[in-house]
Design goal:
Layout (H helix, E strand, L loop, with lengths): L3 E5 L5 E8 L4 E6 L13 H7 L1 E6 L14 H14 L5 E6 L3 H10 L4 E7 L10 H5 L3 H18 L2 H4 L9 H15 L4 H11 L13 E4 L9 H8 L5 E3 L5 H16 L2
Parallel strand pairs: 3-4, 3-5, 5-6, 6-7, 7-8
Antiparallel strand pairs: 1-2, 2-4
Helix pairs in contact: 2-3, 5-7
């Protein structure tokens, strides 16, 4: 199983990432959800290797071993460019899952010349904002306490407590462990990342606008109760050149469509 690595950014912060799949494969930058970390990139380990794709999943600032302050869309793009430069990658496809969707768009909007294509999987949009975490984020210590309570409870009850919040689909024990490990790793050192992004999504915000030169695709499950499909289609539908709407829920969409995602990279 791939291990995490770090690079030092220009401002001396550490940026953590994990590379999965084929070592010399076609590059993809995967933007994880909120909360989340680079460990979620391990869901592509086997499929990316088979497809000749190299998936790079950085932990955004305030998650895992990536140091704060929490990223905005443009500052995240700056961090990603430094990762691409460190790995000698000129252009890349970018994927964004859930809360990582706007950050994927931010990368493409800031440096479109470095982005081959963007694929969004169950992305949040301003019209899907709301929910208990975003309400709690206005009282930062309270949200941090809730996250640590969930983390503690999941360590006792098992990773199914985490996956059950994200999908109703049957998940193998190995995948459940992976998703649980991603959550635990995300907030192990600090909850700054989760709180900061929840505050970002709770306030008035806009999706970064990417130029027409960057193709955009969307995959969103019709059974997704975490991020409803209707406002996402209304916001992004006209801009996308490819839309897939499987009968899956939130995490279920990512897991069910991961092979299709990696196979589309080299087409």
């Amino acid at each position: 199983m791939s291990s995490t690595e770090t690079i030092e950014l220009a401002d001396s912060r550490q940026l953590e990432y994990i590379a999965t799949g084929a070592k010399s494969g076609t590059p993809v930058v995967f933007c994880h959800g909120t909360p989340g970390s680079c460990l979620l990139g391990r869901v592509f380990e086997e499929s990316a290797t088979a497809a000749g794709v190299r998936v790079l999943t950085p932990s955004r600032p305030g998650y895992g071993r990536s140091e704060p302050p929490t990223a905005g869309f443009e500052s995240w793009a700056t961090d990603c460019v430094q990762l691409l430069d460190a790995l000698a990658i000129d252009r890349t496809t970018v994927w964004g899952f859930s809360g990582g969707g706007p950050f994927a768009l931010g990368l493409a909007a800031t440096v479109p010349e470095r982005v081959q294509r963007v694929e969004l999987i169950a992305p949040v949009v301003p019209e899907t904002s709301g929910g208990p975490f975003e309400a709690l984020s206005r009282v930062s210590p309270l949200l941090g306490a809730v996250l640590w309570l969930i983390d503690w409870s999941a360590r006792i009850r098992g990773p199914e407590m985490i996956t059950g919040q994200l999908t109703n689909a049957s998940v193998s024990p190995a995948l459940a462990e992976l998703v649980g490990a991603d959550f635990h790793h995300a907030i192990a050192a600090t909850t700054v990342g989760a709180i900061g992004e929840s505050q970002l999504f709770a306030d008035g915000w806009e999706l970064p606008a990417i130029p027409e030169s960057v193709p955009l695709g969307l995959t969103h499950g019709r059974a997704d109760s975490n991020v409803r499909i209707e406002p996402v289609l209304e916001t992004l539908g006209d801009r996308c050149d490819r839309i897939t709407t499987p009968e899956n829920d939130h995490l279920g969409t990512l897991l069910a469509r991961r092979m299709s995602l990696v196979n589309s990279v080299n087409k």
